[in-house]
């Protein structure tokens, strides 16, 4: 997998996957996109109503969403159990050159996220537990009703259509608790129709800088 480190408009790094010609985050700002989509419109929204938030991330990637979650949980005094799926993790030679630890002052947490063993639930502190699964979403076993929140951060439907298939989405929706949330940067009409067909209440929200819309869906 050929990857190039790039700089985005908010000063934070992202990666470009050369074969797919796809970036891991918005070129308008990696950190501000992740904060807007996954933290402010996902974690901050759901964590108010639960004592401990169980999160499933589809696409661990650079670890940015997980790092921002660690930071938010500590700052807000929240507890999180975090499960991340990533079949093709990036190498230490790549992640160690990204500037998130400096920008966010989270060097220790960032190394923990990347150096933790795969397939084993490991606590970072009393408020955050990480389980990384080096598997495809299609192959990973997901407990029905096991999660309060899903960060759906796969590559775009045009690049990874298999991860946006309605049967794959059905599996993810089944893994949500009643009242659980699904958040993603993607706002394609087909995605919204599929989520509604799976019984989700779908909201189209304002997107992060540089993107008009995003989607948040609640399991009825």
Provide the descriptors you would attach to this structure in a database record.
single chain; 220 residues; alpha/beta; 7 helices; 30% helix; 30% strand; globular
Condensed summary:
With 220 residues, the chain is of the alpha/beta class.
What does this structure look like?
This protein has a single domain, classed as Vaccinia Virus protein VP39 (Rossmann fold, 3-Layer(aba) Sandwich). Helices cover about 30% and strands about 30% of the residues. The chain has 7 helices and 11 strands. The protein has helices spanning about 30-45, 65-75, 90-95, 100-105, 105-115, 165-175, 190-195, and strands at about 5, 15, 20-25, 50-60, 80-85, 120-125, 130-135, 145-150, 175-185, 200-205, 215-220. The strands form 2 sheets. It has an 8-stranded mixed sheet with strand order 6-7-5-4-8-9-11-10, with helices on both faces. Strands 1-2-3 form a 3-stranded antiparallel sheet, with no helix packed on it. The longest helix has 17 residues, at about 30-45. The model has no long low-confidence stretch (mean pLDDT about 95).
């Amino acid at each position: 997998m050929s990857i190039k480190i790039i700089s985005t408009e908010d000063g934070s790094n992202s990666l470009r996957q050369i074969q797919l010609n796809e970036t891991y985050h918005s070129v308008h700002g990696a950190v501000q996109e992740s904060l807007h989509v996954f933290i402010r419109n996902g974690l901050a929204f759901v964590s108010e109503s639960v004592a401990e938030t169980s999160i499933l991330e589809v696409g661990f990637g650079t670890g940015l969403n997980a790092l921002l979650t660690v930071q938010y949980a500590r700052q807000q005094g929240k507890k999180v159990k975090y499960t991340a799926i990533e079949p093709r993790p990036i190498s230490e030679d790549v992640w160690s050159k990204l500037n998130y630890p400096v920008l966010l002052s989270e060097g220790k947490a960032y190394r923990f996220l990347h150096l933790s063993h795969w397939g084993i639930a490991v606590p970072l502190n009393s408020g955050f537990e990480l389980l990384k699964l080096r598997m495809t979403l299609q192959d990973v076993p997901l407990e029905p009703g096991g999660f309060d929140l899903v960060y759906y951060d796969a590559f775009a439907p045009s690049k990874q259509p298999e991860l946006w298939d309605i049967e794959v989405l059905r599996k993810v929706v089944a893994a949500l608790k009643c009242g659980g949330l699904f958040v993603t940067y993607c706002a394609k009409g087909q995605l919204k129709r599929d989520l509604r067909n799976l019984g989700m209440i779908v909201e189209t929200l304002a997107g992060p800088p540089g993107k008009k819309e995003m989607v948040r869906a609640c399991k009825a």
